[in-house]
């Protein structure tokens, strides 16, 4: 399924959690990430999110669906399985792209 995604979205799912700088480089300078009802704006905040809340648990990601919602948007569906409370979470990652970078990402059930 990753083959059908734009390269920047594919890399988002391929990067190891320890590759923080490579991860942050996927986002535009003024990008926004919304995760667990918290909003992170700009690459400094996104770096802090990735180094903290985004990796505080160990998990695997199983993608199940991906579709483009318009020329610059993608919605990817999948399941996280890991050591976080509940152990399983079905999520949607809503990407908005600006050229070859992510300008907005919303992660929600």
Characterization of the model:
It is a single chain. This protein has one domain: Nuclear Transport Factor 2, Chain: A, CATH 3.10.450. The chain has 109 residues and is of the alpha+beta class. The longest helix is centred in the middle third of the chain and has 9 residues, at 43-51. The protein is globular and about 35 Å long. The chain has a 6-stranded mixed β-sheet, covered by helices on one side. It has 3 helices and 6 strands, in the order ααββαββββ. The mean pLDDT is 94. 15% of the residues are buried.
Q: What's the helical proportion of residues?
A: 10-25%
| Extended strand count | 6
CA-based gyration radius: 13 Å
Largest sheet: 6 strands, mixed
User: Any idea how many domains?
Assistant: 1
Give the overall average pLDDT.
94
Topology:
Blueprint: H1 7-14, H2 20-24, E1 27-35, E2 38-41, H3 43-51, E3 59-70, E4 73-82, E5 88-98, E6 101-108
Parallel strand pairs: 1-6
Antiparallel strand pairs: 1-2, 3-4, 4-5, 5-6
Name its key features.
single chain, 109 residues, alpha+beta, Nuclear Transport Factor 2, Chain: A, six-stranded mixed sheet, 3 helices, 50% strand, globular
Short description:
The chain is of the alpha+beta class and 109 residues long.
């Amino acid at each position: 399924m990753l083959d059908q995604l734009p390269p920047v979205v594919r890399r988002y799912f391929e990067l190891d959690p320890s590759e923080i700088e490579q991860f942050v480089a996927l986002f535009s300078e003024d990008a926004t990430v919304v995760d667990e009802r918290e909003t992170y704006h700009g690459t400094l905040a996104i770096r802090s999110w990735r180094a903290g809340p985004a990796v505080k648990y160990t998990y695997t990601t199983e993608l199940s669906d991906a579709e483009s919602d318009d020329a610059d948007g993608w919605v990817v569906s999948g399941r996280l399985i890991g050591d976080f409370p509940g152990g399983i979470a079905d999520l949607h990652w809503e990407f908005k792209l600006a050229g070859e970078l992510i300008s907005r990402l919303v992660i929600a059930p």
